[in-house]
Amino acid sequence: MRVSLSLITILSSVAVAFCAYLPHKRATLAAAVVHTFDTGTVMENLAIRATGEILATVISSPDLWQVDPAAATGATLIHTFDGFECVFGIIELQSDQFYVLVGNADIENLTPVPGSFVAFRVDMSSFNTAGTTTITQIASFPDSQLLNGMGILDAGQGLVYVADSFAGTISVLDVNTGVSFVAINNSLTVPGAPMTTPLGVNGVHTTQDASGQFYLYFSNTAQSILARVPIHSDGTPAGDPEVIASGIIADDFTFDSDGNIMQAVIGSSEIVKINPTTKTVTTISGSPDSTELRSVSAAQFGRLSGDETTLYVTLNGGNLGDGGAVVPGAVKMIPLGS
Length: 338
Known about the structure:
Blueprint: H1 5-21, E1 24-26, E2 32-36, E3 43-48, E4 54-58, E5 63-67, E6 75-80, E7 86-94, E8 97-103, E9 105-106, E10 111-112, E11 118-123, H2 127-130, E12 134-140, E13 147-154, E14 159-164, E15 169-174, E16 180-184, E17 201-208, E18 214-220, E19 225-230, E20 242-246, E21 250-255, E22 261-265, E23 270-274, E24 281-286, E25 296-301, E26 310-315, E27 330-335
Parallel strand pairs: 1-24
Antiparallel strand pairs: 2-27, 3-4, 4-5, 5-6, 7-8, 8-11, 9-10, 11-12, 13-14, 14-15, 15-16, 17-18, 18-19, 19-20, 21-22, 22-23, 23-24, 25-26, 26-27
């Protein structure tokens, strides 16, 4: 997500220092523009529909957009969430059934309105044929501080993870009942050094290893880490958390087909690949010295037969006047090849 003026200045300088000592390999690929939004539009997250279109959230306005990489038709506004100011995490739980976190926050000063966050279901099943969507509020979070990333725990049971970045907690939400509970809260989810930002846990996603054990992977922006914790079927911890990579001012991420993490590093404007076994970090695209992926915030792979190895990303463009080059928020694509 976007961060305040003083914070982003710190992020930029610290990112350069981190890049000097991280065990990075570098195989930088070019990123192509899918769609550029108006200057000042702060893109936050994205999800890919089975039909190939991209749903992208915005935190500088309460908007959800669709962008089609296969057609030069610009962006289509899917919905404006009246009464709110920001749209954060987004996931697809069943076919064309998306869930988003919406709330109120002064993004310029990184000041949320506590208890203002809710979750909506966005039913896109009739959009391609009738141009309509059905928007339903399914949960409220009266104890929330700043809800950010979302991840799937059990699609069949309607269970998802929700990260509260300020509280440093990860909750499990039942989208069928609207009931949620704090499932994970440890020393690696809370805000902390080396950064002074209140943004702790950020992206949250699950995967299964070769032995069958499920893990929740999560990024922590303040602690500049990617970590994981083994989990039970109800989403609670099944062991101790561990750091997989450090020195990366991380936002959201996804997994490739080999189980590597494709991490958006908002602080250094890079996409890096992290091998969870060897803990090797490889820069895939972007650079602290380039605006190509300026303040990249999230990444997802395409779902069509022709773009399953293409990584789509959102970037907020550094729209804060932080002393560096500012570019419009955008959705871009990085063809990774085979």
